[in-house]
Amino acid sequence: MDQEQKLAGKIALVTGSSRGIGRAVAQRLASAGATVVVTARSADKPAGGVRFGQQQIVPGTLAETVALIEAAGGKAIALAADLEDADQRDSLIDRAAKLAGGLDILVNNAGFADYARVDQMALHTFDRTFDHYLRVPFRLAQAAIPHMLQAGAGWIVNIGSITAYPPVRPYLDYARAGGDSVYAASKAALHRLTQGMAAELVDSNIAVNVVGPSTAIRTPGADALIPADYPCEDPAYLAQTVLEMCHLPAAERTGLVAFSMHFPHAMGFPVRTLDGTGELPPAELPLYSHPATSLDGL
């Protein structure tokens, strides 16, 4: 485990943590001392879902995430929830706080991505995309804020996306082919919601920030959307950046839209492995990142 233990005594909830980015974030917060409530639909067996019009089952369970965290000496609690079910979504925060004894950190990571061009996208896909990336973070934040006010501090981190930036001109072949416009629009809205919430909550010592991948992270859920030869990044950089958003007073670090390779590079902090025991090479700016990407999140 990380010897610094920046999050010792803190309680975190990470959505979508049965696999991929959510699992990586949960592992890193736990290795920094937090008790992490991990949540997703898949408690002890992989969950199915529809993508591209077909039923798919994606690997990963909460039980596996908990086992990884505990094997590394951390603490984790599994709490299954389907965020598309309004009752489960709206009761999740209170249930997590009751199980763990409070709530200090909320990481909104869970998502749904089913790419299609705008002229070909079904309305239910549009609705599900905005539900996952805007309505769910909004509702979970609303429920979390009272717990954070009671504790006197809090940290909310929304997982963003570099696709929120406009397509580069002249348009690349990828942009011309299309498919991610609605996903990107939902992430752009999430970025702006985050910045507005940061202003509203800074006087209550609740920090609200965005962290997104600088390029792409190959996960079980995203693999089908990423070309086989695309240069992806290690999720440890993103997980470390999330951690750095979860311990300073809000007055010192809030309202940022930070990216996983750019922010460590600009701020000069070390990036540790997910179990906290090792250190990765210093972050280098990917040459293929969007040219508008902020270095420091401002």
Description:
With 298 residues, the protein is an alpha/beta fold. The chain has a single domain, classed as NAD(P)-binding Rossmann-like Domain (Rossmann fold). Strands 5-2-1-6-7-8-9 form a 7-stranded parallel beta sheet, sandwiched between helices. Strands 3-4 form a two-stranded antiparallel sheet. Helix 1 packs across helix 7 and helix 4 packs parallel to helix 6. It comes from Novosphingobium arvoryzae. Pfam families: adh_short.
Layout of helices and strands, plus pairs?
Blueprint: E1 11-15, H1 20-31, E2 35-39, E3 48-51, E4 54-57, H2 62-71, E5 75-78, H3 86-100, E6 105-108, H4 123-151, E7 154-159, H5 173-177, H6 181-201, E8 206-212, H7 235-244, E9 257-259, H8 262-267
Parallel strand pairs: 1-2, 1-6, 2-5, 6-7, 7-8, 8-9
Antiparallel strand pairs: 3-4
Helix pairs in contact: 1-7, 3-4, 4-6
Family: Belongs to the short-chain dehydrogenases/reductases (SDR) family.
Protein name: Oxidoreductase
InterPro entries: NAD(P)-bd_dom_sf (IPR036291), Sc_DH/Rdtase_CS (IPR020904), SDR_fam (IPR002347)
